[in-house]
Here is the input.
Amino acid sequence: MRSVAVIYGLLSAILLAPSAQAADPIRVLLAQDAKQVTLSADRGLVLRSGAGEERLVPSPVVVTLGSNGTGAGGVVASGPDGRTFTADSLTVKGQEEDMRVAVGATALVVGGVIQVMAKGTGLAVLNTVDLEEYVKGVVPSEMHAGWHPEALKVQAVVARTYVLYQRLAGRERDYDVVAGTQDQVYRGRHGLDERVQQAVESTRGLILTYRGAPILAAFSSTAAGPTEDAMNVWSKDLPYLKGVECPFDQNSPYYQWRAEFKLQDLESSLKRQGIAVGPIASLTPFAYSAAGRVAKLRLLHAQGELVLRGEDLRRLVGYSVIPSTQFEVEAVGQTVVLRGRGAGHAVGLCQWGAKEMAGLGYPVATILRHYFPGTELKDWRQIASAVSSKP
Here is the structure.
């Protein structure tokens, strides 16, 4: 019994060590509705159930839903030796710092801990990681690591601010942010190098605030003109996201673009969304934002008329097909041809603009003040009370 107690104590120490339990933890949703998760680490894994039972196992471990195939059955972890570990939920830590996580075609190397929970007919996979480590996983995923050091620092501040804002806004959720473009792209250790490390460490703790609270630090690739008012994109009236001039991003490959798509494909996409629509006859923009982006389009079809928001058209056709809502409809037949400018929603930071400003010698604080007017740069640890309630 003594040896068992010693082993149990060692496992608890591994899972509860300071490196494992981040001082400023961020809960990142890596996947949801997954059917299988594969976890591995060079020196094995420590598994812990929601009830506190722990086990040290060799790699790899495959986690699936419990025997009844629903969330009520919990999760089952199967090791290479054929042994299984059944739990209501599972927390996993590598004996060393990093773990490899594979869900479908996506594979990441991450620090912190992994939590796997049964949700309905699938698995939710979360990575709980220290705030600064999270930022290191975002910066090279959202901006080229070879860009100017000041631009990387700008991205670090924006990424840190964004996640703290979302942590406050989503306190009732099991997670703070999603690892994809719904929030910020996070790829764990992928792309992490000395340049990224320096950008994050040199801005450690710094965030943008408005009236003492973290802001919604939005960003996108290329404005190609004035940045956009958040009200026109998300119906959010935020004084620091009203739009500013951006003459700095003309070297972006998305400054000008051409795109095309089939009306039949748009019709099919609308029907998949449950919208009754007949064969489409025409698609015409009729309302624009103050910055010149398409706000609304009129779609005439065999069963009537439909009004679409510009952002809805991007979502329906594909964000990779229509980079932004700043476009003109050049030709409408069975094929719609668009000629446009910019990439992304254009709210907040223009990344290509920040790159050019950094190259011209503008410091981090000046770049941030330009794109987020009225904000202040502060260390969030010194305004901890402001990040304990939703702004």
User: Anything to note?
Assistant: The chain has three domains: 2-130, 132-215+351-388, 257-340. Confidence is low (pLDDT under 50) at residues 1-23. The radius of gyration is 24 Å.
